[in-house]
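User: For a benchmark we're assembling, each entry needs the component sequences followed by a predicted structure for the full assembly. Here are entry 17's components. Please fill in the structure.
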Amino acid sequence: MPEDIQKIIPVDSPSLEELHHTLNELLEEEKFKEAREFLGNLHHAEIARLMSSLGALERNIVFDLLEKESQHDVLPELEEPDQEELLDRLSDERIGDILEQLDSDDAADIAGLLDESVRSRVLEATEAEDREEVEKLLSYDEESAGGLMALELVTVSDKAIARDAIETVRKAREAEEIEDIHYVYVLDHELHLKGRLSILDLMLAPGKQPVSEILDPDMITISSDLDQEEVARIFRRYDLISAPVVENDGKLVGRITVDDIVDVIQDEAEEDLGFLGGVGEEEVSERSLFRASRARLPWLLIAFFGELLSVLVLASYETELATLLVIAFFIPVVIAVAGNVGIQSSTIVVRGLATGDIPLHHTFKRIGREVIVGFINGIVISLLFAGVIILWQRDLKVAFAVSFSLICVIVIAAVTGAMIPFALKKFKQDPAHASGPFITMTNDVIGLAVYMILTTNILL
Amino acid sequence: MPEDIQKIIPVDSPSLEELHHTLNELLEEEKFKEAREFLGNLHHAEIARLMSSLGALERNIVFDLLEKESQHDVLPELEEPDQEELLDRLSDERIGDILEQLDSDDAADIAGLLDESVRSRVLEATEAEDREEVEKLLSYDEESAGGLMALELVTVSDKAIARDAIETVRKAREAEEIEDIHYVYVLDHELHLKGRLSILDLMLAPGKQPVSEILDPDMITISSDLDQEEVARIFRRYDLISAPVVENDGKLVGRITVDDIVDVIQDEAEEDLGFLGGVGEEEVSERSLFRASRARLPWLLIAFFGELLSVLVLASYETELATLLVIAFFIPVVIAVAGNVGIQSSTIVVRGLATGDIPLHHTFKRIGREVIVGFINGIVISLLFAGVIILWQRDLKVAFAVSFSLICVIVIAAVTGAMIPFALKKFKQDPAHASGPFITMTNDVIGLAVYMILTTNILL
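Assistant: Structure for entry 17:
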């Protein structure tokens, strides 16, 4: 069925906003038949995006308007809060039905969202095979290779010939068990993984060739307990599109495909951004204002209680400040610049540790580098600052005291900013948890203390 | 050649640190033969990582120790600063040789790093076909689909049968023109793209079946001028592993594969993180301290000059501060908390705009949401603050003035933080450029002014 070029999905055709507008109109006018048709022409990923831009009521209506098959495609694409909302409303039976239709990894993700009591009711009612798959996948840590993998695999014995392997692929395809097949995995009689056959090699091989002659034994295998961030690094490093997952005993248990890795990379990057910005793991699509505020409050409390120490520092210099108020004026500049230097250093170190570009044995080298970069910029800003103070206050001594303190504060901030992520990594914590608010607060308090000590000693 | 399970590359075998240590020892003892053997056993991605952890001298020695073929594999995997360093040392002839061996997209990336004069000299000496490919790719914006794509494609006519397509793949493979083939693209006589054949479908089809019967016409095509961030979103949304790139006239020009998209996602996320952290586009692997310091200085200057306004605000309240020094003590808390609230709001909005989770027509809804979340947390922190002040100063009026001002400052910070990224997006700028230092500085100045106005008016 050759088709016109127009049938190829144009990527820049109707924007989400236009689709949203059309759908909303159809719903408002209760033209449900037309809405159903409209949705039928969209890709499931498009429907999912559209649904998350709707209100809760409309979202539920749209989901009900979809064909059952389309529901199965759309549900895994939705954001978690939306999935939970829909699941709340569906009967146990319907959920069980959905789980049976989904790929094992998607089914496990959905089942993982259910309350324990609902989940065990639902799973009891599903087919034994599907239940076991979901339960097996749920037994892995959600953020490990096991939590990422799907169990659907095409395997052949190492005694097979190419034609056998092709027939196995055909059967798997006809049974609709597995959609995207990149490799056929070759197992020995103990079910240990011997290698893999790419579909491309299989297509080009003569039918009678033993698979043992065309398999690739030097593939990269992922251990089921490996952290997903490390799995993503391996996919990036070796440009993988699919990788087999093995248990510690070398038994093949599943496979991870690059589409899930792309999501992991995005999620991990967003998590790092969230920590730097002090919103933690708050989802952009979080609908509960209460949950959003709760996700952010800890960072604000860190800032609040930490800065109370700044208040103490200032209060302990009450007499000095009363006689020399001018040094108080410059406090915002000093702590803002130092805070920024600290965040700069920590940002670079957090990024480098996350991508693996900074190896842990470079700790001191890297801190040294950050100090030098901080120092160079400290000199520039301090000279500017001294110039401004001289022009404004016509007081060389104040200019010297303030700008000299600023350099010291900046260097300390560069050290703190670089050191905290390394320290976290050393103690097996995620360096990204050296959040922006925490580093800013630390530098504010230390910086303010150093500034007050230096300036008052020089000037009084 | 069936191999033992041990031959499968174990992912958690020798760490980078151990490899680094071994290699360094071999180099120090000038055991170059052993070093060459050691390198010969490593994957090229591993060698690239290892090289970037070495000093400049060792890096050059290691590169020279590699087989030519291995050099071709390793070079594209290196970080840009390392690539530039190596290219500086290679002869024009050798660079031309490398360009001829690389895939078109890698060749164009490498050629793009050369100074214009070197590049034209090198390209003049390379084969016409390779030169044209590189020049064609360099004509696209580096951050567009055209800049990402490779020109290597396997295509067949829409009149062909399955067997023809398979033979075309076989030839392309034997000519070593293209390594990873996921699809064969089907063209009509005007070279317009009619659809694609997956290798899987091709393998399962009878040899005599016309390709027009098995092609998938509903594929997603990417326009060559599309921004790479948008390309990445499309890959993520539709779970693609490869996509054809077409010109505006519908002519197929190249393909983008998911391994490059994975890098785009990582790079774009790092860029966002870099702006939030005030380091801009500084590379973690940047070796020049001068360039690192120059990348960061603009943000520090923004903070510095911005905060001079804070100094002006404070100085204009000199008399009030002299009589009521206690309100100065609380300034660090007020600006730190407000600064964090602003960064929290902007982080969520920047993330949402980057992933497309926040559509632009939700601007006011979103800003409203951020204000409410800020207000809820503002109440919590302000009550705590009031409590602390009452216990410490035993002054209800000061407690009220300070904590009431704090709520106002927080709400303003939430509005500013959420608004700036939206405004940038509206004016076609990257919302991520609403960097942390800029938002913090803006909120510091506005917050301080509001705090001083409110507290002095209430208390004096």
